[in-house]
Write a structure and sequence with these properties.
By secondary structure, the protein is α/β, with parallel strands linked by helices. The protein has eleven helices and 28 strands. Keywords: Cytoplasm, Glycosidase, Hydrolase.
């Protein structure tokens, strides 16, 4: 039997609409069937029918017992592809210190995150402070809550465990509990079914809703989540009762502040301080309060401020990166919250709405800076052991004027030998050395600088470095300015060049690999790509709409290490043009990104005169590299009636 993490808990309250899931189901069905949801009531949700892939819970024990979920059209799309890092498997691997569990509990669950292939809401709720979390729980008021794969993939990337929820509420829940626990055999059967679901979908276990008589359960499971209506001395008393298992006691905190010690909200840290002082763990309910209540001035600023309270009270609990290759497009940086950000000369933010360098977020640095001044901002806190091979570090930057951006690496050894290395931007090496040599152990100029024609304005900086036996502990961005050789001369008729002036730079991505490493992608002929559930409908002016599931796998059956695939389509006017390289000059349309080897396309408009569609599966590796489109696997589909 596969292992399951069992964490006992007390029922959490609801903070949003229960209809979110039904809305997603109705919307998906309406899109698939081409109906006007405003005019026609959508048909009942049929999990077997092809539709826009969604995540959804199980509402009855019958669904669980019959294993109906595994027959669902949506099942393969919900499988998380990112595993926990080595050593992060079971409950026994939990860190031996007070921990932070975060219970999602946001608006009833399955809102924007219920759309497995992504959505159109650029303002959707998100968490990017994974370095402050040990365990993430996805919660809804349904019998069995299955975490959407976007949460599992992201959490696992940062070493955070993910739990689904088993909860039985009110009179209906009592009946379900009676059935589940009617015999030892039935309890064992349902436990195995839950374990099967967790393993199949790639998450790490379950939160169990129990009653107040929970000490016997605590003795038989991996932890207990205490309701948030506790008083100041409760953490200490709980620690005394738990004895050497006090770290497995999670004291609940409701961020909405209802009946919670310290009041939650902007004083959540009051409860965190007491919990940490008494040596037990924390269970934070509903950090989405910031989002749901529209805290000013905007979500990103308020979110960073609130999580800044957690970091100040608890400190960081995760390190990233830990292994090579390391690649980030800044979906999840470790940015610090500086308190009153207006007092800082440079404002640092992560932008997800403007065009990014490689599909993630941009870290934007904007403000004023003097010629001789520097500003640094934390990007990552790592625990990366550097071997004997040289490191190859690349990062993309876009800047204006004389604004420059470099990287600072902080390292240490097992004997606490600390070093700071500055990877400077391209420029005058002598002036750079003069400015920074007293601040850093080593200053390194880039070995190669590339202007990226495909990405106007972006520059790729490349540096090699040897740090044998060191551990990379921190990566910081360094903002500074270029200056002319005679910048030290100031005359009466010239302004002081050191006076602050406008600074602007954007960091697009960063990659750290062992020098000489190149990603070898399987050739397109190594893949089998199929089209399934093909459906054509007629549109205006002779056009057609296509819905189809594209699925792919390696022919030899080997398990590949790829977990990201960009999907494109070429709309061709003749079959003879399929293999012409000039068809890949930018005429392809981007459709979406897949984290599994399947993608469902709904109602793709195909104009009259198009004879075939070439769907291209661009394979991307963990180091950020992507296969050339002309070398990628593809699926050719003739247009019906063409």
């Amino acid at each position: 039997m596969s292992p399951v993490v069992l964490l006992a808990g007390i029922k959490a309250h609801h903070h949003g609409s229960f209809s979110a899931l039904e809305d997603i189901r109705d919307s998906a069905m309406a899109q698939t069937n081409g109906t006007d949801s405003a005019a026609d009531p959508p048909p009942p949700f049929d999990p077997l029918a092809p539709a826009v892939p969604i995540s959804y819970p199980l509402k009855t024990l019958e669904e669980l017992e019959t294993r109906a979920y595994f027959k669902s059209f949506h099942f393969p799309f919900n499988q998380a592809g990112v595993k926990l890092p080595a050593g992060g498997g079971g409950a026994e691997a939990m860190p031996q210190r007070p921990r932070v569990l975060v219970c999602h509990d946001m608006a009833g669950g399955y809102t924007d995150d219920g759309f497995v292939q992504g959505g159109t809401n650029a303002d959707a709720y998100a968490i990017w402070h994974w370095y402050l979390i040990d365990v993430f729980v996805y919660f809804s008021h349904n019998l069995v809550t299955l975490p959407p794969p976007c949460w599992t993939n992201t959490a696992h990337t940062h070493g955070v465990k993910v739990l689904g929820t088993l909860i039985m509420e009110w009179d209906g829940g009592r009946k379900e509990a009676d059935k589940l626990l009617s015999t030892k055999t039935s309890a064992q059967m349902y436990a195995e079914l839950l374990a099967e679901l967790a393993v199949a979908l790639g998450f790490d276990g379950w939160l169990n809703q129990l009653n107040d008589l929970n000490k016997p359960f605590f003795d038989r499971c991996d932890g207990i989540l205490v309701n948030y209506s506790w008083e100041e001395n409760f953490p200490k008393l709980s620690a005394e009762v738990a004895g050497d298992r006090k770290l497995d006691v999670y004291m609940g905190i409701d961020v909405f502040g209802r009946g919670t010690y310290g009041g939650g909200q902007w004083t959540t840290n009051v409860a965190l301080d007491v919990i940490k002082k008494d040596g037990v763990s924390a269970g934070i309910f509903a950090p989405g309060w910031v989002y749901e209540t529209n805290q000013p001035p905007d979500f990103q600023t308020a979110q960073n401020r609130w999580w800044g309270l957690v970091e100040k009270s608890w400190g960081t609990v995760q390190s990233y990166p830990k292994v090579l290759p390391f690649y980030s497009n800044f979906d999840q940086p470790f940015l610090e919250y500086p308190g009153d950000s207006t007092a800082q000369p440079i404002q640092v933010s992560v932008g997800f709405k403007e065009a990014s360098y490689s599909g993630g977020g941009n870290v934007t640095f904007r403000g004023t800076l003097g010629d001789n001044a520097e500003f640094t901002a934390r990007l990552f806190l790592g625990e990366l052991l550097l071997g004997n091979s040289p490191l190859h570090i690349t990062y993309s930057v876009k800047s204006s004027g004389n604004s420059l951006l470099g990287l600072a690496l902080a390292t240490s050894t097992t004997t606490n030998d600390k070093k700071t290395v500055f990877l400077a931007a391209s420029g005058n090496a002598l002036l750079t050395m003069n400015q920074f040599s007293s601040h850093f152990t080593q200053v390194i100029m880039p070995c190669r600088v590339t202007m990226l024609e495909a990405q106007p304005g972006w520059i790729m900086q490349e540096t090699s470095i040897e740090m044998h036996g060191h551990i990379l502990k921190e990566i910081r961005a360094v903002c500074y300015r270029s200056k002319p050789k005679n910048s030290h001369a100031v005359t009466d008729d010239k302004p002081d060049s050191s006076a602050p002036s406008e600074y602007y730079a954007v960091l697009g991505d960063i990659k750290i690999t062992t020098s000489g490493e190149n990603t070898n992608f399987p050739p397109s002929t190594a893949w089998t790509v199929d089209g399934q559930f093909v459906s054509w409908t007629s549109g205006p002016k002779g056009s057609k709409n296509l819905s189809v599931k594209i699925a792919w796998h390696l022919k030899d059956g080997n398990v590949d290490l790829f977990s990201k695939y960009n999907i494109y389509v070429n709309k061709l006017t003749s079959v003879s043009s399929v293999y012409q390289s000039e068809m890949l000059d930018g005429s392809q349309e981007y459709i979406g990104v897949a984290a599994v080897k399947s993608f469902y396309i709904s109602d793709l408009e195909v104009a009259s005169g198009i004879s075939s569609l070439k769907f291209i599966i661009q394979v991307c590796s963990p180091d950020g590299a992507c296969q050339k489109l002309e070398e990628s696997p593809f699926f050719l589909l003739p247009v019906q009636g063409a």
